[in-house]
Design brief:
Structural class: mainly beta
Number of strands: 27
CATH superfamily of the largest domain: Cupredoxins -  blue copper proteins
Number of helices: 1
Order of helices and strands: EHEEEEEEEEEEEEEEEEEEEEEEEEEE
Helix content: under 10%
Radius of gyration: 46 Å
CATH architecture of the largest domain: Sandwich
Shape: elongated
Distance between the termini: 139 Å
Strand content: 25-35%
Length: 414
């Protein structure tokens, strides 16, 4: 069937590519697949051009009409196209144009030419912000108005109340080559943005003659370098879209591909995406001198702790010095001299994060020896009234705790 002529050419002219597929001339298997000419059916607007390319290894033609018709080749005829050759025809009027290959008549196709109508609006517009740009993405119109979508126009504003938004840019090109579904891009990155500003967007779609209604509104706020990150897991590739403090903790190991940012008061171990609260400081800390050179420090276990760090000072409330790490809830500090020592304990969670200091505990080591003896087995009738302690220096003794009512015998001079 030949086309019915109806309207004048349009201002736009696009090119549709059709292939004569490999193997189409060696058998009729492509008939079942409906792709001897690929695509078999194309829909275009007046002024558009169809270009056929022979991708087979034998010669073909593209000829208007049908194998059984009597008007073969009256609209166009390519004659024989050798492998790799092309042929183009521009359609100026509306109509339905059937065609075939005169050498291999099972190869047929159809071109429908109609004046386009208004396309439907783009759908699903989204906006995603970084610290320096906003990326838009949308879906093509569900109805292209009878002609491929050749471009989109993006409108941008800074208030949702000011509709329509001012013109921003266009993506796509009315004079480019595309397939029947169109090749106008459906994404755009807006780099002309100011950190901390919220932008609102809408998109128009264009076919070869008409513009659609506006899409839905999408908005995003450009992240400022001073904007704290929200808790979550981020990739280490590229720059962080926000600062890491004060929202939480930055956790990353050598070679790690991501880090976990936890909310205040929580932490995470390296390589983990789980946040948890750090262990609380130990309670009920006690310090007891157990010899002339050691002090035992004990405390109640902290929930969620994986170990403890013990710290010591010589003045109450001063900056402590690290003593040791321990997995148990007690530790004996040795090698001490006489004096008073102050202790604090911190609990470590599984990630190694330490709690704050516990309440302080102290103990004193005296420089006076502690003496012990056994009560004599034989006691005289009057009983024991007191004891005399002697300190022997260089073989001589002196009384260091005399009692006047007792007679002390022996040399008592140094």
């Amino acid at each position: 069937m030949l086309g019915i002529l109806s309207i004048a050419p349009q201002a736009y002219g696009a090119t549709i590519n059709v292939q004569m597929i490999p193997g189409a001339g060696s058998g009729q298997s492509c008939v079942a697949a409906n792709n001897c000419f690929n695509p078999k059916a194309v829909n275009i607007a007046p002024g558009d051009t169809v270009t056929w390319t022979n991708n087979d290894s034998v010669g073909h033609t593209t000829t208007s009409g049908t194998p059984s018709g009597n008007q073969t080749g009256t609209v166009w005829d390519s004659s024989s196209l050798s492998p790799g050759a092309t042929f183009s025809h521009t359609f100026q009027q509306n109509g339905i144009f059937e065609y075939f290959d005169q050498v291999h008549p099972w190869m047929t196709g159809v071109v429908t030419v109609s004046a386009p109508t208004f396309p439907s609006p783009p759908t699903g517009l989204t906006a995603t912000a970084s610290s320096s740009s906003i990326t838009l993405s949308w879906n093509p119109p569900q109805n292209n108005g009878g002609s491929p979508i050749i471009k989109y126009q993006i409108q941008r504003g800074t208030s949702p109340a000011l509709i329509p938004f001012p013109y921003l840019t266009q993506v796509g090109n009315a004079h480019t080559t595309y397939t029947e579904v169109g090749n106008a891009p459906t994404t755009y990155t807006d780099n002309s943005v100011i950190p901390g500003t919220t932008y609102y967007y809408q998109v128009y779609a264009f076919n070869s003659a008409f513009m659609s209604q506006l899409s839905n509104i999408a908005n995003a706020t450009v992240l400022s370098p001073s904007t704290p990150c929200q808790p979550g897991t981020y990739s280490t590739s590229g720059n962080a879209p926000c600062t890491l403090a004060p929202a939480g903790y930055y956790v990353s190991g050598s070679g790690a591909t991501s880090y976990t940012l936890c909310q205040p008061g929580y932490t995470s171990s390296v390589g983990s995406t789980q946040c948890h609260q750090p262990a609380p400081p130990p309670t009920n800390v006690k310090a007891t001198a157990v010899s002339s050179s050691s002090i035992n420090v004990s405390w109640d276990a902290s929930p969620g702790s994986a170990g403890y760090s013990l710290f010591r000072g010589t003045t109450s409330g001063e900056t402590y010095t690290f003593v040791a790490n321990t997995l148990t809830n007690s530790f004996t500090d040795t090698g001490l001299s006489a004096g008073t020592f102050y202790y604090a304990v911190q609990a470590a969670d599984p990630s190694g994060t330490l709690s704050g200091n516990s309440a302080e505990a102290s103990a004193t080591i005296s420089n006076q020896p502690s003496l012990f003896w056994i009560i004599p087995v034989v006691i005289v009738a009057v009983g024991i009234g007191a004891y005399v302690v002697k300190k022997i220096i260089n073989g001589k003794g002196r009384i260091i705790s005399p009692y006047p009512h007792l007679e002390v015998t022996g040399g008592i001079d140094e």
